[in-house]
Amino acid sequence: MSGKIVGIVILISALIAGGALYYLQVYGFYEEASADLQQVRLMRLGAETPVPILAENIEAIDADSSPIRFRACFTTPSSLAMLTEIYVGVERAVPRNAPAWFACFDAAAIAEELKAGTALAFLSEKNVDFGVDRIVAITQDGRGYIWHELNDCGEKAYDGTIIGEECPRRENN
């Protein structure tokens, strides 16, 4: 009889722990960040600092638990032809998955549009956090998406490779 009670306690504990883990990963750390993102910025060709572009209907989420959890969606009247002439493009951008409840950001659909050429990716900001760049993808019909992606310095830093002088100094937090 006591074996059944122990088994039930273990099973209930596992279910509670699993539910808590799921909640924390999908909902717990994210917060609305639309108020923090007042404008969408892109890096101009040959420039050192990004400049704002026309953007409306900005929706964003972020989490303090990781610098790559940022996601945002917006619309813009700017054409891809104009954007490619003025701003720095990104060749191999891969959007990161967003929580399912953040419905405007579908990483698989964005990746398909990037692959098909109906969307283009641009550099928004270098090193928004150490080793992390902000990437913006814009589709032909004016939908835009923003996410954070590890750059070369970030990949080296997080896999343990020696960083080197080309990377900025990492601030201790």
What do these coordinates show?
The protein is α+β, with helices and mostly antiparallel strands and 173 residues long. It has 2 domains: 1-30; 33-159, no CATH class. The chain is 30% helix and 29% strand. It has 4 helices and 8 strands. It has a 6-stranded antiparallel beta sheet with strand order 1-4-5-8-7-6. The longest helix is centred in the N-terminal third of the chain and has 27 residues, at 2-28. The termini are far apart. The mean pLDDT is 87.
How many domains is the backbone divided into? Answer: 2
Low-confidence stretches: none
Arithmetic mean pLDDT: 87
Cα shape: globular
Q: What portion of residues belong to β-strands?
A: 25-35%
Share of helix, binned: 25-40%
- The span between the termini is 52 Å
Task: Report the C-alpha radius of gyration, rounded.
Answer: 20 Å
The helix/strand order is: HEEEEEHHEEEH
Q: What does the main sheet amount to?
A: 6 strands, antiparallel
Topology, number of strands = 8
Class from helix and strand fractions: alpha+beta
The number of helical elements comes to 4
Task: Give the strand line-up of the largest sheet.
Answer: 1-4-5-8-7-6
List the keywords:
173 residues; alpha+beta; 6-stranded antiparallel sheet; two-stranded antiparallel sheet; 4 helices; globular; transmembrane helix; transmembrane; DUF6446
Q: Outline of this structure?
A:
This protein is an alpha+beta fold and 173 residues long. 30% of the residues lie in helices and 29% in strands. It has two domains: 1-30; 33-159, no CATH class.
Question: How would you summarize the topology of this molecule?
Answer:
Elements: H1 2-28, E1 30-32, E2 40-43, E3 50-53, E4 56-63, E5 71-75, H2 80-86, H3 107-116, E6 119-129, E7 132-139, E8 143-150, H4 152-159
Antiparallel strand pairs: 1-4, 2-3, 4-5, 5-8, 6-7, 7-8
